[in-house]
Automatic annotation (TrEMBL):
Keywords for the protein's UniProt record, in alphabetical order: DNA recombination
Molecular function in Gene Ontology: DNA binding
InterPro entries in UniProt: DNA_brk_join_enz (IPR011010), Integrase-like_cat_sf (IPR013762)
Species assigned in the record: Tautonia plasticadhaerens
Record lineage: Bacteria, Pseudomonadati, Planctomycetota, Planctomycetia, Isosphaerales
Tree of life domain: Bacteria
Designated name of the protein: Uncharacterized protein
A GO BP annotation: DNA recombination
Length: 241
C-alpha cells in the first residue's frame, strides 16, 4: 500500500519471530537473550503506543519503564480509576510532554513482562534491555531479519526504513479500528474535536480498548505454551532457552 505508515499484523508477526534470530550484541551480559526483551517491547509498543525513549532511553531526560512501574495488583495506583485489571497495571510517561499514564495490562502484556522479571527485581532497574545506543538501527536490522521491505514515502517518492516511532502509528491504527477514537486517549494526544469531547470519561474508553484489543497471533504463543517454537514446524528456536 503506497504511503502506508503502519505495520500490518502479518509484519508484526514476522518481526516477533525474527527476534529469535537476533545476534547477541557485543559485550552483552543481560540475564536473558536479547530477543526476549525485543518481543516484550513489541507487545508494549503495539498495545500502548509508547515513545521509544519510554522503553529504551537514549538521553538522560528520558524516563524508562522501571520495575517499580509494573504493578501486579488488580487495583490501579491511580485513585481516580474505578476499573480493576486482573493482570495488573503499567505506569509510564510520555517523552515529549511528561504526561503520566496508568494503563491496565491485558493478558498478553502481563505474560511477556512476567517473562522478563528477575527473581528479585530491583525497583529502579529498567524493565527493557537490549536497545543499545541506537535502538532504531537495531530495529532496522530486525526488519531485515523479518523480510520487511522499507516503507514508501509518497511525498518524496523514496523508500525509507521503518523506525520504532512507526509502531506508535501502528498502535493508533489498530486501536481506532477496534474502538473508534480510542487512540487519542491511549497515545495521549491533545485534541479539541467536538466528537471526542462527547466522551465524558476518557480513561474507561482506553481501559476497554486495551483490555479487548485483538492481538497479532504471534503474541499469543506465550499463552499457549508454544513460546520459542517455529509456528510452521514447531522446532525450537536457538534462543528459546
Amino acid at each position: 500500500m503506497a504511503g502506508r505508515h503502519y505495520l500490518t499484523k502479518p509484519e508484526i508477526n514476522a518481526l516477533y519471530f525474527a527476534t529469535y534470530k537476533m545476534e547477541r550484541p557485543r559485550g552483552w551480559d543481560g540475564p536473558l537473550p536479547v530477543g526476549r526483551y525485543w518481543r516484550a517491547a513489541l507487545v508494549v509498543f503495539f498495545n500502548y503506543g509508547v515513545d521509544t525513549g519510554t522503553v529504551w532511553p537514549s538521553t538522560p531526560a528520558h524516563e524508562p519503564i522501571l520495575w517499580r512501574h509494573v504493578i501486579w495488583d488488580r487495583q490501579s495506583p491511580d485513585r481516580q480509576a474505578k476499573e480493576q485489571s486482573p493482570w495488573g497495571w503499567l505506569f509510564y510517561r510520555r517523552v515529549k510532554t511528561g504526561k503520566a499514564f496508568y494503563r491496565p495490562m491485558n493478558r498478553v502484556v502481563h505474560a511477556h513482562l512476567r517473562g522478563l522479571m528477575p527473581d528479585d527485581p530491583r525497583p529502579d532497574a529498567p524493565v527493557f534491555l537490549g536497545g543499545g545506543a541506537r535502538p532504531n538501527a537495531r530495529f532496522q536490522l530486525l526488519c531485515g531479519l523479518a523480510g520487511i521491505k522499507p516503507r514508501f514515502d509518497v511525498e518524496t517518492g523514496k523508500e525509507e526504513p521503518w523506525e520504532l516511532k512507526d509502531l506508535r502509528k501502528t498502535c493508533a491504527t489498530y486501536h481506532d479500528e477496534h474502538v473508534p477514537e480510542s487512540s487519542v486517549e491511549i497515545l495521549g494526544h491533545s485534541v479539541g474535536g467536538i466528537t471526542y469531547r462527547h466522551y465524558a470519561h476518557r480513561a474507561p474508553l482506553a481501559f476497554r480498548a486495551i483490555m479487548t484489543l485483538p492481538q497479532p497471533s504471534a503474541f499469543s504463543t506465550i499463552l499457549r505454551g508454544n513460546d520459542g517454537e517455529c509456528p510452521c514446524c514447531r522446532r525450537r528456536f536457538a534462543d528459546a532457552a
